[in-house]
Amino acid sequence: MSNNPEDWFMEEENASISFQSEDVAFELSSPEEPAAWIRSVIEREGHELHEVCFIFCSDEYLYNLNQEYLNHDTYTDIITFPYTELPLIEGDIFISVDRVKENARKFGVPFEQELFRVMIHGILHLCGYRDKSPEEKVLMRKKEDEALQLLSR
Questions:
Q1: CA-based diameter of the chain, in Å?
Q2: Within 45-133, where are the H helices?
Q3: Architecture of domain 5-151
Q4: What pLDDT, on a 0 to 100 scale, did the predictor assign at position 7?
């Protein structure tokens, strides 16, 4: 963040969270609430939002990205592409709406709850959290749960 107080407003004004869709017809019912929630999680983690774009897509679209950019031959619910170093938060988060629906059914939770868990999972990746080792997975789940508690207040 700039040390010049006149720049603070501009930096905050330029910080953005956007929601788009690629190859699926999907929109959040009220994007303002999750955007405010995501901003608060980023701030609680001690980072500064620059720009995050959520792209909602199909299983096939995300599968193709997974193969092309990560050389993974598997379906997934989310892929996060970070574009800056911490403490700045900037990136694209691709989410398979198909996979989120399937996982919500599998885990017996409402679609929106699973969607928000996946969305904050991507944000936590941008905040530096990983989920490869068992210990990292436990911490990631704890952080997801903490964030979801903020949303339900």
A1: 51
A2: 59-70, 97-107, 111-126
A3: 3-Layer(aba) Sandwich (3.40)
A4: 37
**Spatial distance between the Cα atoms of 60 and 103, rounded to a whole number of angstroms:** 16
Query: How long is the chain?
Result: 153
H or E, element range at 13: helix 5-14
3-state secondary structure of 133: coil
pLDDT band at residue 151 under the 50/70/90 scheme:
confident
Whether 126 contacts 82, CB under 8 Å: yes
Is the pLDDT assigned to residue 80 strictly greater than 90?
yes
- For 93-144, the pLDDT digits (tens) are 999 999 999 999 999 999 999 999 999 999 999 999 999 999 999 999 999 9
CB within 8 Å of 143: residues ≥ 6 apart: 120, 124, 129
Interatomic CA distance for residues 58 and 21, integer angstroms: 9
Alpha-carbon span 44 to 108, nearest angstrom: 29
Alpha-carbon span 107 to 110, nearest angstrom:
9
Distance CA 2, CA 9 (A): 10
